[in-house]
Amino acid sequence: MKKIVKNGIIVTATDTYQADLLIENGKIAAIGHDFPLGGAELIDTRGSYVFPGGIDPHTHLEMPFGGTVSKDDFETGTIAAAFGGTTTVIDFCLTNKGEPMKNAIQTWHAKSKDKAVIDYSFHLMIGEINEDVLEELPVVMEEEGITSFKVFMAYKNVFQADDGTLFRTLLAAKELGGLVMVHAENGDVIDYLVNQALEQGNTDPIYHALTRPPEVEGEATGRAAQLTGLANSQLYVVHVSCAEAVEKIAAARRKGYDVWGETCPQYLVLDQTYLEKPNFEGAKYVWSPPLREKWHQDVLWNALKNGDLQTLGSDQCSFDFNGQKDLGKGDFSKIPNGGPIIEDRVSILFSEGVKKGRISLNQFVDIVSTRNAKLFGLYPQKGTIAVGADADIVIFDPNVERTISAETHHMAADYNPFEGMQVTGEPVSVLSRGEFVIREKQFVGKIGKGQYIKRARYNSSATDATDKVSN
User: Fold this and answer.
1) If 317 and its partner were Cys, which of 36, 40, 60, 452 is the partner (CB 3.0–4.6 Å)?
2) What angle do CA 197, 203, 207 make, to 5 degrees?
3) How do residues 159-191 score in pLDDT, each as one tens digit?
4) Model pTM greater than 0.85?
5) Are 293 and 271 in contact (CB under 8 A)?
6) Contacts of 196 (CB under 8 A, 6+ apart)
7) Do the beta carbons of residue 267 and residue 240 sit within 8 Å?
């Protein structure tokens, strides 16, 4: 059925204007004024913003970690994402050394099949590089539309790859048109510091942060950036948490290196003191990289404003406090890393960013949607409001106030790290390919309606050279 979105203020990464949208066959068919109703469903959005659907480039749904599995799967996780104004997520396929990468992709297809309520895609972890992997990569890109590859520089003896693997992945990505993503922490140094802390009897959650200091993130970020320059390739640094990493990304971009940076809402509004909460409550805030001292927040906000960081992911990886996080009682290194973030990503950036004057409204749209679409081969199908684009639409009330709480969130985890935080602005209704998933803050979507999206190769659809170097 045709729909007409009327009376809203349309906001894209570059423009803000009042117009109506005609939606037909899941696409934006026209933008203008006074379309004839002609049997179309009228959606009055007076007093609201109309945004392109958010794109979360960093989720871990139903992910095995530390002897357990993250709580939110592709059903609960994508429902929560939709409530939060996100209409596309990109999750990570974790590979096993010595096995075809296709096995991991098939596993993730099985996890997501008939579950997602919004569209989704996959990144692929690269844990080793050999002739088998190099032969399989172009096949994966062509058949699966997976055009981004993650290399872990941390989690020694679990996910961590060596520098040779990272460098050869960068070379392959340059040749094939892929984007390399890194978890940038020095895993060898962290392993030493963790063992030292445990030997000294330091087992509380705060030692998760103290054994992963900002220097190890900054060092790894700089190393990855230098290798990217050497390979003349392209790099995306995930979950940047500290000034040391921001400085390395900014320096690389000034040299003309094709390097991008993502941060997450938890690093913008929470700080290291949360890990000191008594009665093991600090375990709720254990993820990697860890929360930093509060002053780093200003650095991150400034980096988003000036373009040294370009995107916001959630790093959604939820675990229950009771029954999962408490696996690390008596040993902080056994606390499952991650938190329930996916639902509040968009609202926190709007409330703390736009409403407080830290970023503009158009920057907000770019950070939560458009830039991710461009970097990860989804643009212009997604990430903007334009004729021919998918009708992934968020109708957003900029003035409503709410209190974040586990009692009202839609994630499966038994706590919310932003518990009690007051935010201004939230999605009222959300459409995915022209169909309501959330309507007047109620879930009306269909389980399994979300589609797997094959993505274009890096830079084939959208990022021009002027985007690559911050001024």
Assistant:
1) 60
2) 65
3) 999 999 999 999 999 999 999 999 999 999 999
4) yes
5) yes
6) 211
7) yes
